[in-house]
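cron nightly-structures :: item 1 of 1
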Amino acid sequence: MLELEAMGSEQTRKIHRKHGAPDNLFGVKVGDMKKIVKRIKKNHELSLALFDTGNSDAMYLAGLIGDEKKITESQLQHWAENSSWHMISEYTVPFVAAESPFAWPLSLAWIQSPHEKIASTGWCTLSRYVAMVPDEALNMSALKSLVTQIEKSIHNSDNRVRYTMNGFLIALGGYVLPLTDFVKKAAVSIGELKVNMDGTACQVPNVITYIEKMEKAGVLGKKRKTARC
């Protein structure tokens, strides 16, 4: 914690707060945090302790060093329920959850939650899951049903849920070739998506544009080796 605190800066704290971070943070750049990751690698017990500090930087680091082979379903549920803001719920928890044996059942349960934070965690976990898992190991019919669910409900969903549903469509269309055209058709049906970005310069990526960008770059359907970044 002392090392993290020393890495923090007021400028980064201001940026994070503008995006919705709580006051309990040091303001550490992710690039600087990865210097610690390189030294520590994965450490299950330390990741749990860091998460439970409630400090935003420590919680994010927890996701970078979390051990997907040791973490339990109840511990992931604890993380999902206690994320302090969307950088933790949409990155930290999915980083580890998507690589764990519980990725598919947990994410399906989370997306049904009435709580915006938990539902968003579920969609982000699914996004990272389909980006890694070989197509032949995916449940294509279930994924198509999720696309249909999004098509019917996205405009009436909570703000961050709309954003993360959109992200899931991009991941599914970009990393799962058998469903690329299916996702594109759904995106046309959905039309313009409005998400409140809290006055920041962030924009909602267009599903079709993003998928076509991946195609032009020659990475369409190319699976990721890890859920973490």
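cron nightly-structures :: done
The mean pLDDT is 97.
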